[in-house]
Specification:
The complex is a heterodimer of chains A (328) and B (795).
Chain A lengths: L7 E4 L3 H11 L3 E4 L5 H6 L11 E4 L10 E4 L2 E5 L4 H6 L1 H6 L1 H9 L3 H6 L2 H6 L25 H4 L22 H7 L3 E4 L3 E3 H4 L16 E6 L5 E7 L10 E8 L2 E7 L6 E2 L1 H7 L6 H11 L17 H17 L2
Parallel strand pairs in A: 1-3, 2-3
Antiparallel strand pairs in A: 4-5, 5-8, 6-7, 6-8, 9-10, 10-11, 11-12
Chain B lengths: L3 E3 L5 E3 L27 H5 L15 E7 L5 E7 L1 H5 L3 E6 L24 E2 L5 E8 L2 H10 L1 E6 L6 H4 L15 E9 L2 H7 L2 E9 L2 E2 L7 E7 L3 E6 L4 H8 L8 E4 L24 H9 L3 E4 L8 E2 L2 E9 L5 E10 L8 H5 L5 E9 L14 H18 L3 H8 L11 H7 L7 H13 L1 H4 L13 E10 L8 E7 L5 E4 L9 H13 L6 E2 L17 H27 L2 H5 L19 E4 L2 E4 L2 E7 H6 L15 E5 L11 E10 L6 E11 L6 H20 L31 E6 L14 H20 L5 E2 L3 H7 L4
Parallel strand pairs in B: 3-15, 10-31, 13-14, 18-19, 22-23, 29-30
Antiparallel strand pairs in B: 1-2, 3-7, 4-6, 4-8, 5-7, 9-19, 10-17, 11-16, 12-13, 12-15, 17-18, 20-28, 21-22, 21-27, 24-25, 25-26, 28-29
Helix pairs in contact in B: 9-10, 9-19, 14-15, 18-19
The chains are: A alpha+beta (328), B alpha+beta (795).
Chain lengths: 328, 795
């Protein structure tokens, strides 16, 4: 860990001002909300100088505040600066969109949830220990380099569904699969983006946001059914997910999304097709779980101690089954 | 008569002359054994007011770091520091080929000794070659980035089993083969015993690296006052060893050591990097000498994560139908620094025949691997043996324990004469007592079942496991202590000592209070100053208490006598000065034997109404000296233990209950029961704390913690608090802590140690419990979900 290199800190008072600053720096500025991912990334010096931010634009001083949770006409609206702990504890979210409340509750630890915002949680960098190794140790694909070290290296926590490009880092957000399953919309200063389309695999980011684009609000439509979220991690209280899964079942339809298994949240449409029009029972949920991972192509084990990512397929299958059953 | 006992090495050793003795407890004890005694340092720690070494800032202080290798094995071909030197605020740079680096290129001594300023790195993040001191941390980091280094990458291998094949010799200049050490120790007649055994089983288990992850990274602050006088503030465990090894060229009378509060040091500095024999802690000293400024020399948090307890165990065991083990034959492969893997097995059993084949392998993992810490390896091997035997025979593992426990190849019945001679209560059977309590607490008789047959209504497999061991601390280290009565009637313990949170400072004060008859609040020990002549063995918990409390007891008895003698003395007797009119003492006409102390008040035994507070005793004749009157000299008592292993009679047992999710492979630890025979619980709260802490460490390492390397580059990948999953409060179910007091320990009053072996044993209780749950033995630990799924045939 290092002292953070010098950067300019801009306290934006409006979204327009923040967006203007982003445009001014032409990709060399980052937006910061809770700062839990941004500052850690800078402190560990994970990026090359070419990608290191010259400025941080803080959204904490934005007016009107983006810190709110409200229900309007059956739609849930959450300001991008709302901290995860508030979402986890919100009776509005809990009563109407349980998967999201659970996802927020399962994110990080209480202290981090009091700092980290939902906007930051869905925009955080992907996770890979090669990408995030301190001192920019690995000049990997995600930083504009020429190779993915995890492909031939230690990859037990990496993708099971291949890669966009050749990077097998995974999206670690807990709230992202819940938003996809709940068919949410991400509102920015420029447009509205369906959660299904919000994530991508640019370098080094994880979303389709443009250089001067800022998430302002999350909108979740009224939930006609039940939803559930499950997370698998080694520790119960703080870890990033090894696999997580959110499912919403409405009538005989389901929306199912896995995360931490691919570069971006993975919509398990094959599992949804199994559910469609059927009465859910254990056998059907089991079949849906198997279908969810039917396209899996886990990474092979490397070295004596490597185990590859195949074991995550079993976890993913199980979580899909269990979230479906939890919605019944 | 001392019993002649055959030692591990085949020699005969008499225990007659050890310091082991039947200790009489102090009369009218008020503090020994009491719960709720306030910890000496509780308030300052929980309030955040403690000053750790990292908190210390001196006027004009510089910040310093050392270069760390980005490669697993590489040599510096060239290094250009011109840009770093030119950076404003850079005050001193030392690199490996500078003249002042000579002392830093000494290898030190002991385990893993290595030069601090090598030009070749043998593992990732090895500190080497270059150190910089600068005005601020920002300038320091910038200067580090400006250093231009041309590296020559060399072959590496992180798997010791592959390295030992010698396909590539990793350090040809030092070792012609990657097998650094290869020797066999045999005790008894293994081959003959195996032939006579009813059953023989063989297995291999690989134990992956764990990390200590101590909270405060290693550092020190150095400050030269003038040309000769050196001040050092250190986070370190063994300051005396470091002084002896690393400061041969500086007069120790010119060095002033200060030991601020230590931020979690349990075993952490016991390493090649910051260990007691390491010369790394000279780097800041030399930078300070060069810059003529105070220097804070720091490692970062990645040094939390050094490896320990790791290796491959290839075992063969012969045993009888009733579970009696007759022979053990093991091959142990690891990067280690000379330790015996069957040592504990020999110490705690009656097994006559055992052979260990020790293979010390050069590989490219962190050189500061310490495979033997906390008895982890040894207890893993020992317990794995009995668990496998019990599993093979379908026996209750506690029955297998009963068939095999003993000491140094003997049954306790064979050692009864020795027990009678040395124990206050020689007929108590410690193992039976701890088994009975543990079984009741976890409801063993109702919960233990055949392996794989504990399916629960929630769909998980239930498992229950057990591990056991002898007491922790069957030898004693050297210890000395000073003690004096202050002007205000309080008693001060003197001695260099490092408390990394175990709370032994309080334990020492309890003992002094009861031995002397003082109030606990009148006893004080703040061991920050490391410059006195007395040395208490650090850190002071298990081995520390065993080593230090006998010294403290003897000193306290002497001090009490001296205090009572003072109470009887007249002015002339006390000062040696003659006066025309002598002034009487506090208890004229009485001898010290006729007096006693209670609650810090001296009284006449025959007439308790005749009493005076200790403070008054100290102030009597106070005017007779200039300023302050203090006892001169302080009471000093050296007490150097024989350092022999004596038969360990006290036992501990640990039971762990788990649930295993068959679909995810996750192991949930739902209950833990610890029962330690501690001999005498001087401070039960501290001991329970050791059981809780040891459980979290042991169960975390057994269940999820694992240091991971990149097989392609040899780079350690999860050496931080995000990637290395230390178990947290929510990760382990209720922990039920229990103490037994048979007074058969090696320490004062028959006390013993506790903490490290709780860590070692709970690790293996998990191994047993997972087998009980799924009906399969894991061939690699920790019991992570992937390994469980593999054992279940799910992947």
């Amino acid at each position: 860990m290092h002292s953070i290199q010098k950067f300019k800190h801009i306290k934006a008072t409006t979204i327009d001002e923040a967006a203007s600053a982003l445009a001014q720096y032409g990709g060399k500025a980052w937006v910061t909300a809770g700062g839990t991912d941004v500052l850690t990334s800078m402190r560990f010096d994970i990026l090359p100088d070419s990608l290191y931010p010259e400025a941080l634009i803080s959204l904490k001083s934005i007016s009107p505040s983006l810190d709110y949770i409200k229900e309007e006409g059956g739609m849930l609206k959450i300001g991008a600066m709302t901290v995860l702990e508030d979402i986890a504890k919100s009776s509005i979210v809990h009563d109407g969109w349980l998967a999201l409340a659970e996802a927020a509750h399962k994110t990080a630890s209480p202290h981090l949830r009091e700092m980290g915002t939902i906007g930051g949680n869905i925009c955080q960098f992907n996770r890979c220990w090669y990408f995030r190794k301190e001192d920019n140790r690995f000049d990997c694909l995600r930083k504009g380099g020429n190779m993915c070290y995890a492909m031939a290296g230690e990859n037990r926590f990496h993708s099971i569904f291949g890669a966009i490009g050749a990077c097998v880092a995974v999206n670690p957000s807990d709230t992202a699969p819940a938003l996809v399953a709940l068919n949410a919309t991400i509102v920015t200063n420029k447009r509205e983006i369906a959660a299904d389309d919000f994530w991508g695999a640019p370098v080094p980011g994880s979303t389709v946001l443009e250089e001067d684009e800022i998430v302002t609000e999350i909108q979740v439509p009224e939930s006609a059914g039940k939803s559930a979220f499950l997370k698998f991690a080694l520790r119960t209280s703080i870890d990033f997910p090894i696999v997580n899964c959110a499912t919403m079942v409405s009538g005989s339809d389901a929306r199912i999304c896995l995360n931490a298994v691919y570069n971006k949240p993975y919509r398990a449409t094959a599992a949804e097709d199994v559910i469609k029009g059927q009465t859910i029972d254990e056998a059907l949920a089991e079949s849906a779980g198997a279908a969810a991972v039917s396209d899996a192509s886990p990474l092979p084990a490397t070295g004596t101690w490597g185990i590859g990512s195949k074991w995550k397929v079993q976890i993913a299958k199980t979580l899909v089954k269990r979230t479906i059953l939890a919605c019944v | 008569m001392g019993k002649i006992i055959e030692s591990y090495y085949g020699e005969n050793t008499s225990y007659k002359d050890t310091m082991f003795q039947k200790w009489e407890l102090p009369e009218n004890m008020k503090y020994i054994g009491k719960r709720g005694v306030p910890k000496e340092d509780a308030h300052e720690k929980v309030s955040g007011e403690s000053i750790y070494t990292r908190d210390v800032i001196l006027p004009g202080m510089l910040y310093a770091k050392q270069l760390q290798s980005p490669h697993a094995h590489a040599r510096i071909k060239s290094i250009d520091i011109s840009k770093a030197e030119a950076l404003q605020g850079v005050r001193a740079i030392i690199k490996y080929d500078d003249p002042e680096a000579a002392i830093l290129q000494m290898p030190g001594s002991g385990y893993g000794a290595m030069p601090a300023f090598s030009a070749e790195a043998n593992f990732y993040h090895q500190p080497l070659g270059l150190a910089i001191a600068a005005d601020t941390q920002e300038i320091l980091d910038k200067a580090m980035r400006l250093v231009e280094i041309e590296w020559e990458e060399l072959p590496h291998e992180i798997d010791w089993n592959v390295a030992m094949k010698d396909e590539v010799i990793l350090e040809p200049d030092k070792f012609p083969s990657n097998t650094k050490m290869n020797w066999v120790n045999e005790y008894g007649h293994v081959d003959e015993a195996l032939e006579e055994a009813d059953h023989i089983i063989e297995w291999q288990m690989d134990r992956r690296e764990n990390s200590v992850c101590c909270v405060e990274p290693m550092l020190n602050i150095s400050h030269w006052e003038g040309e000769d006088n050196l001040n050092i503030w250190s986070k370190i465990q063994f300051i005396q060893h470091s002084m002896q090894t690393n400061f041969p060229d500086i007069k120790h009378t010119k060095i002033r050591n200060t030991l601020p509060t230590q931020g979690g040091t349990f075993g952490g500095p016991y390493s090649a990097i910051w260990g007691k024999y390491s010369v790394y802690n000279r780097i800041g000293v030399e930078l300070s000498r060069k810059a003529r400024r105070p220097v804070k020399f720091m490692f970062d948090e990645h040094f939390f994560c050094h490896d320990w307890n790791v290796g491959s165990y290839i075992m063969k065991a012969g045993f009888m139908d009733d579970g009696t083990v007759v022979a053990v034959d093991g091959e142990f492969r690891c990067q280690r620094y000379g330790w015996f893997q069957l040592f504990d097995l020999h110490e705690q059993t009656r097994i006559h025949n055992m052979r260990e084949h020790l293979i010390d392998i050069v590989d490219s993992r962190s050189l500061y691997t310490t495979p033997h810490r906390d008895g982890g390896d040894m207890q893993t091997i020992s317990n794995m043996l009995f668990q496998r035997v019990a599993g093979f025979l379908g026996m209750d593992p506690t029955e297998v324990a009963r068939k095999n426990y003993g000491a140094n190849g003997h049954t306790w019945e064979e050692l009864q004469e020795w027990r009678d001679e040395h124990f206050v209560e020689p007929d108590r059977n410690s193992l039976e007592e701890v088994i009975a309590i543990a079984k009741e607490k976890i409801d063993w008789d109702n919960k233990w079942h055949a392996p794989g047959e504990g399916l629960l209504p929630n769909g998980r497999y239930h498992g229950i496991g057990v591990s056991w061991a002898h007491e922790w601390g069957v030898y004693k280290m050297a210890s000395s202590a000073g003690m004096t009565v202050m002007n205000d009637g309080t008693v001060k313990l003197l001695g260099t000592y490092i408390d990394c949170g175990n709370g032994a400072m309080t334990t020492y004060c309890q003992v002094i209070a009861d031995v002397m008859g003082m109030k606990l609040e009148d006893i004080g020990f703040r061991p920050r100053d490391a410059n006195g002549p007395y040395t208490l063995w650090p850190p002071g918990a298990s081995l520390g208490c065993i080593s230090n409390i006998p010294t403290i007891v003897k000193a306290a008895k002497k001090l009490k006598q001296m205090l009572l003698e003072l109470a009887t003395q007249s002015y002339t007797e006390r000062t040696g000065l003659s006066t025309t009119t002598d002034m009487p003492g506090d208890f004229p006409g009485l001898t010290w034997e006729e007096l006693d102390i209670e609650d810090s008040v001296v009284f006449e035994k025959a007439n308790p109404e005749n009493r005076k507070p200790v403070i008054q005793i100290m102030k009597t004749h106070e005017y007779s000296t200039a300023g302050a009157y203090a006892l001169e000299p302080p009471i000093v008592d050296d007490f150097t233990g024989p350092q022999l292993h004596r038969p360990a009679s006290m036992y501990q047992i640990h039971m762990v209950e788990v649930e295993v999710d068959p679909d995810t492979g996750q192991v949930f630890i739902t209950k833990v029961v610890n029962v330690n025979d501690i001999g005498l619980a001087i401070n039960p709260d501290n001991l329970y704390g050791q059981q809780y802490g040891g459980s979290y460490m042991g169960l975390g390492t057994s269940n999820m913690e694992e240091v991971l390397y990149c097989p392609q580059t040899g780079v350690k990948l999860n050496d931080d608090m995000v990637g290395y999953p230390i178990s947290l409060l929510n990760d382990i179910g209720p922990i039920d802590c229990n103490l037994v007091e048979t007074r058969q320990g090696y320490g004062a009053y028959g006390s013993g140690g506790i903490g490290e072996n709780v860590t070692a044993c709970t690790y293996n209780a998990t191994y047993d419990a997972v087998h009980n749950a799924i009906g399969k033995w894991l061939d690699t630990m920790p019991s992570t979900p992937d390994r469980v799924l593999k054992a279940l045939g799910k992947i």
